[in-house]
Amino acid sequence: MVDNAATLVASLQSALAEEPDLAHNPAALARRIREEAGVISDVEVLEILRRLRNDTSGLGLLEQVLARPGITDVVVNGPEDVFVDQGNGLQRAAISFNSDAEVRRLATRLAISCGQRLDDAQPFADGRINRDDGTSLRIHALLAPPSESGTCLSIRVLRQTNTSLDDLVDNRTLTRESAELLRTMIAARTSFLVIGGTGSGKTTLLSALLSEISVDERLLIIEDTAELRPNHPHAVTLVARRANAEGSGEITMAQLLRQSLRMRPDRIVVGEIRGAEVVDLLAALNTGHDGGAGTLHANSLHEVPARMEALAALGGLDRTGLHSQLAAAVDVVLTMARQPDGRRLREIGILTGNPVTTEVIWTTEAGPRPGYQNFRDALAPRTHAPPAFEPLAVEEDTKPDAVTGNSNLHIPAGFDGSLDNFRTGEIS
Length: 428
Prior knowledge:
This protein is an alpha/beta fold. The chain folds into three domains: about 1-55; about 65-160, Beta-Lactamase (2-Layer Sandwich); about 165-380, P-loop containing nucleotide triphosphate hydrolases (Rossmann fold, 3-Layer(aba) Sandwich). It is built from 13 helices and 15 strands. The chain starts with a helix and ends in a 49-residue tail after the last helix.
């Protein structure tokens, strides 16, 4: 690789700014590379083109770490401090930037791609980028100052998942006992929350559970970023949108929840409950839309009531109202945890009473606990399969009506197909 690759890439970026059409002419770009670099091999030309593409429209130096399988997070604490998480905690990556200015250029470009502003007057920004490979990136950038270590970047890799419950049993996230209980819950239209910390597998478990829902039911999924991809033929996903740099164009989760109620949902699912939308979700679950679900950032079952109180307050619902709604809307809480040997369903709990109290009925270490069998027995009578949508039967000897072209349609006597005499009292 030529020693002045970074300088050459910067020169090419300047050329592209002056001649945008060059971006669509790789041969012309290759000629310019050879003119500026002098003696250079074909392999080096291709590498320069790759770096130019990554630095212009991709994530630059970070593309090579994002290409690794299983990457969930990339954080940059300055030009020489890059860390990645492949599911086993943050570890230092064997790459570094040439300068903080290079990190800042990348951060600024990513912020612009998210429709956000990032400069000295607005030194932090966050947003989402959807990539061609189906992944989404949640981006947060912070300039120096206020950062003392240089420009900081935090990138969360969001991958849509369609893992099944059987897959989760195979990789030991679930036991066979817990998987069967979860299937019974889904069939019984039990409303539930999946909780856990960042990267604990909440979304993966929720997606697998949604795949167990009867194909005759219509799912309305509301997300901040599209991550859920259940194996289900009738799932509709609505994705929230942040305001742009001018402060317009925002579509909130709460707005989408209200819209979903008009879309004939059988079940309503919120990918991640993080704000005032909790009020609309609980209201929906308490108006005939049982079997709903969502995820929540909480580390244990006992944190759920307080966490829900805090979120409900953002939507103007007081503590008394929250407990009344929560007691009627949510039955079960599933707690996920990231452990050294992988992600696990740590415990299953239930919510009872008003004010709501919590009770653990199953743990991965001890199995069933007091209350487990009573809960399971209570599910059985509620288990049912919703009636299938049957196509309308049309008798073979039924011929279309001469006026309307429709079969089995009653036409009032005296109606000849025109609207001239279609007034009250003229057709009997």
